[in-house]
Specification:
Number of strands: 10
Pfam families: ABC_tran
Domain ABC transporter: 7-238
Strand order of the largest sheet: 6-7-8-3-9-10
GO molecular function: ATP binding
Family: Belongs to the ABC transporter superfamily.
Organism: Rhizobium lemnae
CATH topology: Rossmann fold
């Protein structure tokens, strides 16, 4: 019997009430993610990218459809699912090491093991020399590294990243994209990243999920068959980027997303590098 998908999103619709009217943020979204895969999600503002991330992490509810992690229905937050936001959200009165240690707040490990894990992740993100520093002494890029370390420190099974580099300058952003790719390759953690940056999506993702404007649906999933580390100046990288841009702009020929039939509810895992277009 086949294993369930590592993360399976099936026919998810999410609506909100805004000023006495109903707004559909997501409609009939279905996606399967393989273990260890790096998925990037792009789309216009308001297309439901961050909503989908929060639903997957268990931070939001009230949706139709189903989300399963390792076969179990996602019903709330879990230490198995970490999340990193655009703003690092570090507590200014805590040192870097104590901010990272917050990721272990509910972990059942000894004090010595917590210290070992914090030290290990300080080293992993290049902040070993700043353990005792307070957030106001950090640059924007360093603060975001601390946020990533906090998201990773409890060894989550899936890490969701909501535009983690969106507020950074271009040089710092490119540097941290490379660092995140190295961390992913080393840690083998499944990662799902939301971004507005098509270049970032192609640089990091095994597959790029292109969302349509509200109501948010998956317009196309573009496979990125490029070796790592990736060369942003190569013609093949440019070809993939152009395909994603065409899909975003509605000039690529893709089918209109439709709900997946109920009888296919038990979604089998998709190979990590399979091309797919789901709705």
């Amino acid at each position: 019997m086949s294993k369930p998908a590592h993360l399976a999103i099936h026919n998810v619709t999410r609506q909100f009430s805004v000023d006495s009217r109903t707004v559909t943020a997501l409609q009939y979204v279905s996606l399967t993610v393989a273990e260890g895969e790096f998925i990037t999600i792009v789309g216009a503002s308001g297309c439901g990218k961050s909503t989908l991330l929060r639903l997957g992490a268990g931070l939001d509810a009230g949706h139709e459809g189903e989300i399963r992690h390792r076969g179990d229905v996602v019903q709330g937050p879990s230490l198995d699912r970490g999340i990193v936001f655009q703003e690092p959200r570090l507590f200014p009165w805590l040192t870097v090491e104590r901010n990272i240690a917050l990721g272990l707040e509910n972990a059942t490990v000894s004090k010595a093991e917590k210290k070992r894990l914090v030290d290990e992740h300080l080293e992993l993100v290049g902040l070993a020399g700043f353990a005792k520093a307070y957030p106001h002494r950090l640059s924007g890029g360093m603060a975001q590294r601390a946020g990533i370390a906090r998201g990773l420190v409890n060894r989550p099974d899936v890490l969701f990243l909501d535009e983690p580099f969106g507020a950074l300058d271009a040089i710092t952003k490119a540097h941290l994209q490379g660092e995140l790719q190295s961390i992913w390759a080393k840690e083998k953690i499944t990662m799902i990243l939301v971004t507005h940056d098509v270049d970032e999506a192609v640089f990091l993702g095994d597959r790029v999920v292109v969302m349509s404007p509200r109501p948010g649906r998956i317009r196309e999933i573009v496979q990125v068959n490029l070796p790592r580390p990736r060369d942003r100046t190569s013609s093949t990288f440019g070809d993939v980027r152009a395909r994603v841009l065409q899909s975003l702009n509605g000039t690529a020929h893709v089918r209109d997303p439709q709900p997946v039939p109920t009888e296919t509810k038990s979604v089998l895992p998709r190979p990590a590098h399979a091309i797919a277009a789901v709705g």
